[in-house]
Description:
- It comes from Tyrannus savana (Fork-tailed flycatcher).
- One of its GO terms (cellular component) is microtubule.
- This is MAP1B protein.
- By secondary structure, the protein is an alpha/beta fold.
- The chain has helices at residues 30-33, 40-45, 65-75, 93-101, 103-108; strands at 22-28, 46-53, 84-88, 111-113, 118-122, 125-129.
- The protein has one domain.
- It is 27% helix and 25% strand.
- The strands form 2 sheets. A 4-stranded parallel beta sheet has the order 1-2-3-4. A two-stranded antiparallel sheet has the order 5-6.
- The chain is globular, with a radius of gyration of 17 Å.
Amino acid sequence: ISKGPGNSKPAKSTAVPPGPPMYLDLVYIPNHSNRKNVDVEFFKRVRSSYYVVSGNNSASEEPSRAVLDSLLEGKAQWDDNVQVTLIPTHDSEVMREWYQETHEKQQELNIMVLASSSTVVMQDESFPACKIEL
């Protein structure tokens, strides 16, 4: 039997299966914050004080705007209003636009985006960094 586009079932997310939430201190959002692996269910289940958002590839849509929006939607469903800090590893156009467009919602949900201009220099190599104290 041939399945055409109209006959196929919508793909279900397999990023994180439904279940009780997990509470963590620090979470690195997997796969360069690609929307194929991280959705609203991820943020409903994987609850953290700090999320590291990697990705600096606009051609691959990393970090994904959908992932950042999923954080807002998932966090809105938490029972408590614990502060969440989002730590981007790179300055990107997607991150800047999302920050500006959703700033009010971030404040409502007690989400802070950490902007860091610190640089670490090691053996003729430099890279952006930030300090986290748990």
